[in-house]
């Protein structure tokens, strides 16, 4: 998972709107992935069945240039997918906020 923190920050122009995931697109993705079940989780490799709480996962992350084509979907446990998405989002956010080469000053607290 160390590769997540070596990602290049996504440069988005102010005029380019952020694409949202949800609605009809996620319904179609879940229908596509439901036909694959039972199958291995794309994150941890464990079994995913239709009775479980599962997500349609992007095999190649959209933040890293992946698409919303049906070939890019796979089943994942809900916990596996949300924790991976949080790590990717944090890596992108932290890469944008912290400029490389600048060290933050640490001062001891007086209390």
Protein described:
This protein is of the alpha+beta class. It has a domain at 33-95. It has helices spanning 24-34, 78-97; strands at 39-40, 47-48, 54-58, 73-77. The strands form two sheets. A two-stranded antiparallel ribbon has the order 1-2. It has a two-stranded antiparallel sheet with strand order 3-4. Strand 1 and strand 2 form a beta hairpin. The longest helix has 20 residues, at 78-97. The model has no long low-confidence stretch (mean pLDDT 79).
What sort of overall outline do the alpha carbons produce when their principal axes are compared? elongated
Query: How helical, in percent, are the residues?
Result: 25-40%
Low-confidence regions = none
Query: Hey, roughly how much beta strand do the residues contain?
Result: 5-15%
Side by side, the strands of the main sheet go 1-2
Distance between the termini: 37 Å
Structural class: alpha+beta
Radius of gyration: 18 Å
What is the helix tally?
2
Largest sheet: 2 strands, antiparallel
Strand tally is: 4
- Listing every helix as H and every strand as E from the N terminus to the C terminus, the arrangement reads HEEEEH
Calculate the mean pLDDT score and round it: 79
